[in-house]
Design brief:
It is a single chain. By secondary structure, this protein is α+β, with helices and mostly antiparallel strands. It contains seven helices and ten strands. It is elongated. 25% of the residues are buried.
């Protein structure tokens, strides 16, 4: 193998109870995490893996399949298998900071492209989420959020007009929505409730996010509330499945007087 490929010094431990494919997987993970295998770098072919490590194609395919499912590898038809970009880790429940604030803190360069910013009557589903009558005026904002100039999230946000009339004409290209609501409208999010799901990109979503039709998307729905329990904001976001990973912090509380 060339110097650009995984080290040939690795050997399968044939006496170990650990399956061959898992040994190879752990080795490749170590190469990726250490930086010896870099983003965009092409992996050897199945035949090269087989010859170098004296393993079967079944072992190689199982290894590559698992690393693909976990987002470390991507395969391009007719070109080969490559090291993927690292996934973006987002806080799911432990923080009520917005996407812009969260990503800036993590060191990303965030930019926003506004697709739509208008006043519309609330549909049945939106009115249900915001607990307003159907037809109530809501400010609707559809945006593409970019991280380091790459489209990562397609999000549509709904806010009742009466809560923040200024929002309709706000410049949100390079500003946090939550920051605008707090500083310009005097409203502050107290708590939120979020739902997560998965869907496949349709033609329109794929074109916005620069991915293939049918690519996995992480669907995030959220309703945020004021201190008096009035819904302030509802959003529906689609995150690229190949670029996003959510982290959840769990805390175990002990009951008083019980172990």
């Amino acid at each position: 193998m060339s110097n650009d490929n995984p080290s040939g010094e690795f050997k399968i431990d044939r006496e170990s109870a650990v399956p061959y494919y898992h040994q190879l997987k752990l080795f490749l993970l170590g190469e990726i995490r250490s930086g010896r295998l870099k983003q965009g770098q092409k992996l050897p072919s199945e035949a090269e893996f087989c010859d170098t490590y004296n393993i079967s194609r079944t072992v190689v395919r199982q290894t590559i399949k698992e690393l693909q499912n976990e987002g470390y590898l991507t395969t391009e038809k007719g070109k080969g298998t490559f090291i993927s970009q690292p996934r973006i880790i987002e806080g799911f429940v432990q923080s009520l900071s917005g996407f812009y604030e969260d990503m800036v803190k993590r060191g990303y360069r965030v930019s926003t492209h506004i697709l739509k910013q208008e006043l519309i009557p609330a549909s049945h589903s939106v009115s249900h989420k915001l607990r307003v009558e159907e037809g109530t005026p809501v400010v609707t904002i559809s945006r593409i959020r970019r991280l380091d100039d790459e489209p990562s999230v397609y999000v549509t946000t709904y806010v009742p007009q009466e809560i923040c009339p200024k929002l309709l004409n706000a410049d949100l290209e390079n500003r946090s929505l939550y920051s605008f609501l707090e500083k310009n409208c005097g409203v502050e999010i107290f708590r939120g409730h979020r739902y997560i799901g998965v869907e496949l990109a349709n033609e329109y979503e794929a074109s916005l996010l620069n991915i293939d039709v049918g690519s996995p998307l992480i669907e995030l729905e959220s309703v945020s509330y004021l201190r008096d329990e009035r819904p302030l904001e509802y959003f529906h976001a689609l995150h690229r499945g190949d670029r996003t990973k959510f982290e959840v912090e769990l805390v175990r509380f002990k009951s008083i007087g019980r172990e």
